[in-house]
Amino acid sequence: MFDKKTVLITGGTGSLGQALTARLLALNVGTIRIYSRNENKQIEMETKFNDSRIRFFLGDIRDLDRLTRAMDNVDFVFHAAALKHVPKIEYNPFESIKTNVIGSQNVIDACIASNVKKAICVGTDKAVSPLNTYGATKLLMEKLFVTANHYLDPQKYDTKFIALRYGNVLGSSGSVIPKFIEQISKKNKLSITDTSMTRFSITMDEALDFILKATEIGKGSEIFVPKIRSYSIVDVKDALVKILEDTGYDEVGIRPGEKLHEVLINRDEMRYTWEIENMYMILNPLFNSFHNQNISELYPNSQKMTNYDVYSSEVVDRITSSELEQIIKASKLL
């Protein structure tokens, strides 16, 4: 699918962007254009990869002209650029709207202008029944992408817009495991928000497999969600205590806008959700082609989802503390 093709990644210097770049290079991609604002991160990434197939474009997704220029002759776009820090966004909501909403609309407009084959936006569980501004802006990003095909004349354009939704990558920057490791290394007590808290778990390799599979089978206007397990925050603590040491913990309470359990598909979305290729697929009810009688023809390997009322980290299968111990040991986090 990507052999000799040109790919652009917005926010490409982030952890996902760099991992996706490495995977695409291994798939014999023609050129990868990294589009981001931070010149220092671009220099670091350029040195790290040292591959002539990577091009670096300084630019902000708020700048439609720059985006359009960067997308000239691009085949695939992965949209991962966003303002993501929940407390900062709560304090600066206008700025998150400019980047996460208007910036996403700019990505869509630039893709249409350049007749990109497929454009994939990377979303978050926080977009589901959002409690904070970040989640609300990412929900709007999803809505923009899954309805973008409404704006296209199929006789002139054939860009397919697809949305992805998953939680934090296990061990990613700012996530709970690196934070706990740092606290233990400093002999500090672990800061646990709530001992009942659960979170979905996906490794970077699993995330990349999911992204590429959804890109392959997506026909446009779907939201894809991976089938994944979850973990309890207490089991993470117990695993790290066994590996490192027990420095104790304090229960500090849930932050404003934070949920006790993550939800990737809410109850209302279940009516439009199907299982396919080890993923869930939420179809847009605004499109006649997505009505039940047509879905088996469009997606031969799909079946209506009946597993859950709500696809939440509270109800899915859990990763045990001993499994977490092995996962952490196998990672490069320690």
Please describe what this structure looks like:
This protein has 334 residues and is α/β, with parallel strands linked by helices. It has a single domain (6-167, 202-228, 263-312), classed as NAD(P)-binding Rossmann-like Domain (Rossmann fold). Helix 3 (64-70) runs parallel beside helix 5 (93-114), helix 5 (93-114) runs parallel beside helix 6 and helix 9 (233-243) crosses helix 11 (321-330). The protein has helices spanning 15-26, 39-49, 64-70, 86-91, 93-114, 133-147, 176-185, 204-217, 233-243, 292-298, 321-330; strands at 6-10, 31-36, 54-58, 76-79, 118-124, 160-166, 190-192, 198-200, 223-226, 230-232, 249-251, 263-265, 273-276, 279-282, 303-304, 311-312. The chain has a ten-stranded mixed sheet with strand order 3-2-1-4-5-6-9-14-13-15, with helices on both faces. It has a two-stranded parallel ribbon with strand order 7-11. A two-stranded antiparallel sheet has the order 8-10.
Helix content: 25-40%
Strand content of the residues, in percent? Answer: 15-25%
The structural domain count equals 1
Q: Evaluate the radius of gyration.
A: 20 Å
What's the CATH topology name?
Answer: Rossmann fold
CATH C-level category: Alpha Beta
Overall pLDDT, averaged?
Answer: 93
Low-confidence stretches: none
Structural class based on helices, strands and sheet pairing: alpha/beta
Q: How many β-strand runs?
A: 16
Gross CATH architecture: 3-Layer(aba) Sandwich
| DSSP helical segment count | 11
Biggest sheet, open or closed, and with what strands and sense? Answer: 10 strands, mixed
Head-to-tail CA distance between termini: 36 Å
The main sheet orders its strands as 3-2-1-4-5-6-9-14-13-15
